[in-house]
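Run log, item B.
One chain of 358 residues. Sequence copied directly from the ordering sheet:
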Amino acid sequence: MAAKLLSRYPWASCPFIVSAPMRVMAGPALAVAVSRAGGLGFIGPGIKTQDMIVDLEEASTLINKARASSSGSNVLPSTDSLLPVGIGFQLWADDVNVAVANIARFKPCAAWLYAPREGPKELEDWSRRIRQASPHTQIWIQIGTLGEAQQLLTSPEKPDVVVVQGAEAGGHGRAKDGMGIMTLFPEVADAMASSQIPLLAAGGIADGRGVAAALCLGASGAVMGTRFLAAHEARIRRGYQNEIVRASDGAVTTTRTLLYNHLRGTFGWPAEYSPRTIINQSYLEQQAGGAFEELKRRHDEALKLGDRGWGPEGRLATYAGASVGLIHEVRDAGDIVREAREDALERIRSVGDRGPRL
């Protein structure tokens, strides 16, 4: 299955490593850097769906420069009509008409669909329209439960790839019915075995150990999100990024809560979803009984502090996964991909070299 998947992305190397389409923070620089390193980079949703136009234009420019470069790290094919980056959408908030028009124009190699308000029918509508507009753009759908996997099996518009996200993931995951990737992935894989749809593992993966574990679970590749927030190419404020590096013990320092969405004025997410974030003063004071109006006032004051608005004494949203304790420095995205790939291969080889011990 992994070989079948890689054949669709001829620049990619095994194990297949993907950077998640994190909203705003996964921009074209990050996506192209990941793809240049032999992975697949996704551009995340913007504030508005129209923001994808500028992002895909920039990605196209970066890709053309990479193709013209004599650098040995340039592995992007020059003959493929598809852009070697993907684009992500949060269906409940994005405009399908704008999305389809610009997928037809730019032809990214993959479109990642997530969080429909109207369930399977909305996924089917987006999938059908994208395929009509750009037949070779692959449809990726993110799920977080066995039930969602079973729904996909009955869909007339089955995806080309399914991303199975465990509850360890940052950002918006399942609010109440999420499960860790170690248990969730094998059960979904068993249910979908006859579909021949490649499955990727996501949630809590931040280095080669996680990639190797995903492959051992049967995944065709691994998705990392939070790790790439600590990449030089991420579109992220320094104060936010410093928190990704500083935080540890994700079981204690992160939680799922809608508080930060509401402090930022973000409403409307479907009820099934809630974001994981690093805890700071806003959350602690809410748990102590603080009134929302006062928390909002303090949050808005913190916005004026720039990078000092983040941190343990800060108040601003710091969406991140439980893998924060595995991230210790900011690095180039390409180095993150290559190191994770090489470490995963070495760990798999070392397990094989040990052989059975009776």
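Observations after the first pass:
- The two ends are 32 Å apart (CA to CA).
- The longest helix spans residues 333-354.
Flagged for discussion on Thursday.
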